[in-house]
Design a protein that fits this description.
Layout (H helix, E strand, L loop, with lengths): L9 E2 L2 E2 L4 H14 L16 E5 L4 H14 L2 E6 L11 H15 L4 E5 L5 H14 L4 E6 L5 E3 L6 E3 L9 E7 L7 E7 L6 H9 L2 H12 L3 E9 L16 H13 L6
Parallel strand pairs: 3-4, 3-6, 4-5, 6-11
Antiparallel strand pairs: 1-2, 7-8, 9-10
Length: 267
């Protein structure tokens, strides 16, 4: 790998380049923050629970992966969809995953990371094969923590796109802009309300459909252990973001996610 100076480049409040060393430090700090289990609580490596974390490279999914590896000694598979370095740096999740994999190996954890489209049946088959061949064919836990801009339905081939918009009326708020070499400044931005099928499209991407599909897929391969448990990590948010998040299009998707976990709520 050739040496490269990574400088900060941004568009609005989004930074376009990630720094490998910073991503590694973040993962190391998260690992160090996990309380170590009591000696008698440490399972043998071949008896550790088998877990699948879908969305393991960022946010709550990354936190669940690191906590599971550091405290429970989990075995299993982490799934994410990140971009490798090329003309530009890789995505932050690419470097976070590399750092997590390095720590897992250092501590003797048998955990495999796959980079690919979690919405596809191809990747579901790849995960199922790994669970069957490498981890004894039974999955104890599935953690679902996926955030994505789009999803292609494997049955129909239709692509859906998620949007972050309020419902009913426009939303105005303050934001911090880092553009150019100027000092960061606070500006006001306005986001227009959802239109057309924005809500349905967002629910199709970020709702519970794919989560249920994962469980059905693995159950169809007889890969769910006795007492199998699953959780989808959601987010309520603060009153400051309620209009654009929990009460907006993403909130509609989160409601669908929760109804998927508790079907009786939708009756």
């Amino acid at each position: 790998m050739t040496e490269r100076i990574v400088s900060s480049r941004s568009r609005g409040f989004l930074f376009l380049d990630s720094h490998p060393a910073g991503c590694t430090r973040l993962v190391q700090d998260m690992w160090q923050a996990v309380p170590e289990p009591a000696e008698e609580g440490r399972p043998d490596a071949d008896e550790a629970p088998v877990a699948l974390v879908i969305g393991s490279s960022a946010g709550y999914g990354l936190a669940a992966t690191i906590a599971g590896l550091a405290r429970a000694g989990i075995r299993g598979v982490g799934v994410s969809f990140e971009k490798a370095p090329g003309r530009r740096t890789g995505t932050a999740g690419w470097y976070r995953t590399a750092a997590t994999a390095e720590l897992a190996a250092k501590h003797g954890r048998d955990f495999v990371f796959l980079n690919g489209d979690a919405f596809s049946d191809t990747l579901k088959d790849q995960v199922a094969d790994l669970l069957d061949e490498r981890f004894g064919g039974k999955l104890d836990y599935l953690v679902y923590s996926v955030a994505a801009p789009r999803r292609t339905d494997p049955d129909t081939g239709v692509m859906y796109a998620s949007v972050l918009k309020p419902i009913g009326e426009a939303y105005r708020t303050k934001t911090l802009v880092f553009d150019g070499d100027r000092a960061p400044e606070v500006t006001t931005v306005e986001t227009g309300p959802a239109e057309g099928d924005d809500i349905e499209q967002t629910v199709a991407v970020m709702g519970g459909t794919d989560w249920a599909r994962w469980i059905d897929h693995l159950a169809g391969r007889d890969l769910l252990a006795q007492g199998f448990a699953t959780v989808a990590l959601s987010y309520i948010g603060s009153p400051l973001t309620a209009s654009i998040y929990r009460q907006g299009t993403i909130g509609a998707a989160k409601a669908h996610l929760e109804q998927t976990a508790r079907p009786s709520l939708s009756k």
